[in-house]
Write the structure tokens for this entry.
Amino acid sequence: MKLAILFPTLLSLSAAAETLKINGSTTVNLPVAEAAEVLRAEKKMDIQIDTQGGSSGGISMLGEGLVQVGMISKHVSQTDREKFPKCQYKEIQIGEDAVALIVSKDVWEGGVKTVTKEQVADIYEGRIKNWKEVGGPDRRIVFFNKEPGRGTWEVFVHWLYGDPKKAPQVSFPEVGGNEETRNKVASTKGALSQLSSSWADGKTVFALSLKVDGKEIAPVTANIASRIYPLSRPLFVLTNGEPSGESKVLIDFLLSERGQQLVKKHGYLPLAELKAPETRP
Amino acid sequence: MTGRRRWSLTKWVSGTFSVFALLALAALLVLFIRQSLPVWRQEGWGFLTGKRWFYRQEEFGLAPMLHGTVAVALVALGLAAPLGIGAAIFTAEFLSTRLRLIVKVAIELLAGIPSVVYGLLGILLLRDWVYEAMERFEPLSGDTLLTGGILLGVMILPTIMTLSDDALRTVPASQRLAARALGLNSTETVLHVSLRQALPGLVAAILLAVGRACGEMIAVFLVVGRQDNQWPDKLFSAKPLLEAGQTLSTKLGSSETNIAYGDPLHWAAMVALGLVLLALVTFITAIGVRLQRSPHET
């Protein structure tokens, strides 16, 4: 066990300094990993890409100088900046994604297609425990909560409570990356979780619409682009200061026509389709 | 040994190395204790007995994780101990030396399989199996302490088996011959002579396996559900086994370790979790090693 930890560390220390190391959100990873693939082949760049700890992992590993580029699906918070005062976090948006509330097949076929914000809060806080209370089958709700630090979770509680810090104290089984979330929801009856909408395939897991002011709003491209669907979030790559060298090559590629095609290919909105890209210092 | 005690170069060099190893261990302990101080100051013994862990509200109590660790380890033992010792009796008592070595090598290979592979098998097979097999008890999902325990049981089986086999083989053949000469049949010889004499070694095998079970992270992580604050209503009931839970090591492997970095209190709590886990595993392993070394007087 100890050796298993030591060896990769030693190896990475001895590796050439030109290796571009990237870590962060599994959501942002999809287009970035494919961009890395292209750059490895075309520019012979040496790129290591990983998704340890999701967005928070990206922020902390960039803060500690372990990677040169972070991938995040939420903003860098003031707390993060205070934790790593030496790091000049620079967010560069590469696209936009929506967080869908996804359910398992039995719930979907049992008639739950839409929920209201109040119902979701009641489920999250344990006041609603059975799907029949929201017009579905008589089955207990199995809520898989995205683990803390995941961009998906932060977008979810931001929508419900305005601020992750105001989220109530709850304990649910936790899930990490997008694959795990989808697999666990798909294989569990009565399951509900938060998931990047591009992963909601409509075959194994199903994305609920949200009822806002009597209108049902599905997490589809048009609604995300116009920000009518309330659970959307920007996708960023993150650097320490202005990107330079290898990082700049990667980021320029992501922002180019071809890079934006990759963003779109994975189900996210490319920057050009966004009505108003988010800007924040 | 004659009276002359000369320190040769080899002795010096190897001695220095062992001092380094000890220093590294001491440094690790000092570092862990120092970094965990803030949480001990805030929570005191409540860190060990507290049933609530909400890091955003700065509440840190690890009792539910300790319960999870013990529950998972007990399930694993319940499965692996009878199977492992049973298999060891067969290899040590009934197989020829050559066959025994072949079987032993095959089983030790199992011990070398990376634990993440076991974890993936757990996701592929075990979660759904537990979910369906336990359907009448209505588990919420296949992610339960029981699933983690069964998976761990499979993982520690080779350890128990091969160490038990070693323990049984240290019982001198003359003892078995004497037993047979006294008219005991092979079953009686195993039960009354071999097992009895190998008992400390068998207990050691179990303890060393438990030590491994407590520290195991990734495989359990994938199937245990990672639900915090699952302190059972009744301590000695089997019901919590069918619910999701969290162990000390799965908590350490969670995303919180990343989040905690830079926040002194939260970081201290995570380091203190590591310290408790280290103490627990060291304690169990030390007893195991001690028992294993106790000589069989003949």
